[in-house]
Amino acid sequence: MTTLSHGPSGSPGSHSSEEGDLVAGPAAPPPPGVRVRDLVVVYKTPLGELPALGGVGLTVDPGTITGIVGESGSGKSTLALSLLNAVQPPGRIASGSVEIDGLGDVVRLDGDPLRRARGRHLGYVFQAAQNSLNPLKTIGKQLLDLGRSHGVADLAALVRDAKDLLGRMGLDGARVLDSHQHELSGGMRQRVGIMLALVLNARLVILDEPTTALDMITQATILRIIREIHKERGLTTLMITHDMGVAAEVTDHLAVMYGGQVVEHGRTTEVLGSPAHPYTQGLIRAIPRLSGDITKASALPGRPPTLGTLPKQGCVFQERCPVRMDVCATVAPPPVTTHGRTVACHATAAAPPLDGRKEQP
């Protein structure tokens, strides 16, 4: 991701002398684009190394909010951690690249350059905020530790910016910074996680299930905060979620994952309004209804695959697909992009284009 300011060379490791300048102003670089290419992540198991991501390709446009949805085990969080080159043993990135504007291929970073990139370039909000907070230190002390580890010269400015961010999220900044995590509610801890991801002016922010286990009112507040801060700070944002309603409310683009693959990707309104992949259609049919014919909601048959039960060849969705063809058992469908929508499905590729027009070359 892009840093707050580059040195003359523009290399990821260079920093300006204004390390303490934490306000995103006119000089701040534009939001970065992200290009994931042929990304393979494997986990070591008693059965050998098994793929959690099987050659993922995904392009995230600068300045957008992109949602990544799918059932548990589809590879969403593994993909998110790969963007930080933070996959931990027994997992590893086996091949592929993650190109981020202003930072280069994150997969090739390690050591001190990678540590500097996290936080100052790449902000991450964990699914369970309390798991990323030190229970023995106040939030303020953890904030100062973060600033020192990234060489921030003006720690007082860092604290002021943190208080401002917390205040805009409806919290008493001074009180929160003086609190331990157990003194804060789940919604407050989640907002603290967002503050810590933004306070160093990261330009690419990744949110892993930011509304999980929150009540509806707090969830709505968190989503409003995400939208406002994304717009005001000019960010590129990725949101991992299993909630299609959350994705519909917040995101501009939507990537649907299944079995370690992106099976459909496009504008959120188009993906939800006219889903092309059978898995996306099944996810939408499974959403409970509060009005109309409530019997129309139907669960997807079968179970999501695990690392050990993924098909060795062919389409990853073949065992649960209602439109399975013979070719699906032997040949993995290549992603086909038509008018900005990418779908990996033999049945869709054999059908007419979604809008009736001829496919563009």
Automatic annotation (TrEMBL):
Report the Pfam families cross-referenced here.
ABC_tran, oligo_HPY
Signal peptide positions are: none
> Where does the ABC transporter domain start and stop, copy by copy?
34-284
Q: CDD domains in the record, alphabetically?
A: ABC_NikE_OppD_transporters
Highest taxon of the lineage: Bacteria
ATP-binding as a keyword of this entry, yes or no, is: yes
One GO BP annotation is:
peptide transport
Return the Low complexity bias intervals.
Answer: 1-15
Q: Is Transport set as a keyword in this record?
A: yes
Q: Where is this region: Disordered?
A: 1-30
Q: Which Gene3D superfamilies match?
A: P-loop containing nucleotide triphosphate hydrolases (3.40.50.300)
What positions belong to coiled-coil segments?
none
Ordered alphabetically, the record's keywords are: ATP-binding, Nucleotide-binding, Transport
Gene Ontology molecular function terms on file: ATP binding; ATP hydrolysis activity
Q: What is this protein called?
A: ABC transporter ATP-binding protein
